[in-house]
Amino acid sequence: MRVEALRKEFGSTVAVQDISFTVDSPQMIGIIGRSGAGKSTLLRMINHLTPATSGRVMVDGRDILTLKGRARRDWQRDCAMIFQQFNLVPRLDVLTNVMLGRLNRHSTAASLLKMFGADDIARALHALERLGIVDQALKRAEDLSGGQQQRVAIARALTQEPRMVLADEPIASLDPMSAQVVMDALRQIHERDGLTVICNLHTLDTARTYCDRVIGMRAGEMVFDGPAEALTPEMAREIYGAEQAFDESLTSTSLPGAVPAPEATAPQPAPALQAVRVGT
Amino acid sequence: MVDPHLHQTVVALERRRRLYSALTIVVVALILVSGYAQAESMNSGGFIQGLRKFFDYPQDIVAAAWDRGGEFFVIVWEFIPALIDTLNIAATATLLGGALAVVLAFLSTRNLDVWPPLIPVVRRSMDIMRTFPELILALFLIFVLGASSVPAMIAVAVHTVGALGKLFSEVNENVSRQPIEGLEAAGANWMQRMRFAVLPQVLPNYTSYFLLRFEINVRASAILGFVGAGGLGAELRRSIGWGSGHETAALLLLLFVSIMIIDQTSAYLRRALAGDGALPWQRLKGAAA
Question: Could you say which of 1.20.1260.10, 3.10.50.40, 3.40.640.10, 1.10.3720.10 is the CATH number of the domain covering B71-279?
Fold first, then answer.
């Protein structure tokens, strides 16, 4: 994927200023910056949720920003998105929420009748199992905790069988423990499925811990692009526009002594899997 | 110390306000008195005499029913088909009208990514459907299609589309955009987004309004019988016209009881929908999960 001079203006303000970067091989990329730096807008433009003012996003030799209708929705399916507020359907059960990731692959008529096949159900259950919440499959999404809801959202993204995953502040509404589980899950998607994961993050240490590459944004401009190790405290000050007194640990939400273990997120055993009766 | 000038101004304003109030009361009283005198001279019986006779008719029909003794309930039973006729008109009209109202409501709500020029068009057409009272519409349709249940059903359905469509559209305006966005980002088309992101949010409120509308439509259908649409209303008009007091009493009892039952049932269902998990089967499902 190649992003070329991507720009977004809201009226007279420039939210994203001619950003360019290239992703050649699957990477886990963290985008950091202050609130309002344009991180969300950037991701939303890549997914085509928000139209760009100018610039191109080249994938497989075509500019996905020019896609319309069916082709645009197919791109959105390929480029799964995870939101800060989870954006699940609160009154539907978890399993249905996850199966909604399959909507794009179904005809309108069949999906309107809620006719999901055995294949969809199996995929959804498998995704939930992978994220360790298959025992919650028949609960309403709104009855789950924030961390669990975000994992449901990730499961939905997985059933889309995407080519990349965009995550817009996936842990900003979560407690530190849930945040770690969610970040581990995203890291695992990158490592196990070999997908590019682009993740907007609030905190530096999360970006350092989980991401191979960090992009720093400040007031709509890209001010840093490099490996996570190259992110020095000086560079961080530059990104956040902070004073000398800037202390990274103030923004940290990581648990002391919690060693991130991307591969250690073994899915919990799913005792209820066989017992789960799928609603028709 | 308050500025004396300001004080005077306020007092003057207050005086003028009182004067206007007094004038308004006098004018309204004059209109009422003259209107009453006018009506008194135009009507065949006087208002006061009419008021005294108000309870005579109910007394008559209750007495007529009482004279029949046990046979009265046989008469009630014989009117059940008429009741079913009326309920049929109401149910069909509510279902058809409600279904169309759902479609139009989705097309007339601003925050649901509808093609913007369509919204005012759909809204105005719902306004028009709502403007015609069922009775007027039914009179017209019965003139065109002949006296039967169908024109009455269409009349009630048309009004239902207009009334429910507006209420449904207001419900739609309050939905959360987040699930819609979530599905859009997953590549779902507009119909799919409406079906899965919006419908689950609005369905409880829809059901509540739908039941309320059914109640209203049962009454409307009974009234439409008077203009030739069959059902309870037609029987009622016949029995009143023939001075058949015991039949009138039986019909009124039937109407009263059935409306009361529908009222209570729908009130219960609506209460249950407002509070999640209040219905018995919801409690069961909750316990099983």
Answer: 1.10.3720.10
d(CA A246, CA A241): 9
- A42 lies in a domain? yes
Residue A31 lies in a domain: yes
Residues of B in contact with A74 (CB under 8 A): 187
- Measure CB to CB from residue A49 to each of B176, B185, B203 and give the nearest one: B185
The ipTM value here is: 0.82
CB pairs under 8 A between A and B: 85
In this prediction, residues B178-203 reach a mean pLDDT of 92
- Tell me if A263 is assigned to some domain: no
Residue A274 falls inside a structural domain: no
CB contact under 8 A, B178 and A85: yes
Domain boundary assignment for chain B: 4-41, 71-279
Residue ranges of chain B whose CB lies within 8 Å of a chain A CB: 176, 178-179, 181-189, 191-192, 195-197, 200-201, 203, 289
Burial B24-52 (b: 16+ CB within 10 A, else e): eeeeeeeeeeeeeeeeeeeeeeeeeeeee
- B280 pLDDT tier (thresholds 50, 70, 90): low
Check B185 against A47: CB less than 8 A apart. yes
Q: Is A47 on the interface with B (CB under 8 A)?
A: yes
The whole-angstrom distance between B281's CA and the closest CA on chain A is: 15
Res. A258: pLDDT tops 70: no
Query: What DSSP state is assigned to residue A227?
Result: E
Domain range holding A80? Answer: 2-254
- Shortest CA distance from A278: residue in chain B: B289
Contacts of A101 in chain B (CB under 8 A): 186
CATH number at residue A87: 3.40.50.300
- The domain tally of chain A equals 1
Residue A161 has a pLDDT of 93
**Chain A residues in contact with B187 (beta carbon < 8 A):** 73-78, 103-104, 160
Nearest-angstrom CA–CA distance, A31 and B32:
75
- pTM given for the model: 0.76
| Cα–chain center distance at A202 | 13
CA distance B157 to chain A (A): 25
Concatenated DSSP letters of B115-155: -TTHHHHHHHHHHHHHHS-HHHHHHHHHHHH-SSHHHHHHH
Average pLDDT (B241-248) is: 86
Sign of dihedral through CA atoms A44, A47, A53, A54? positive
Which residue in the set A75, A103, A112 is minimally distant from B183, CB to CB?
A: A103
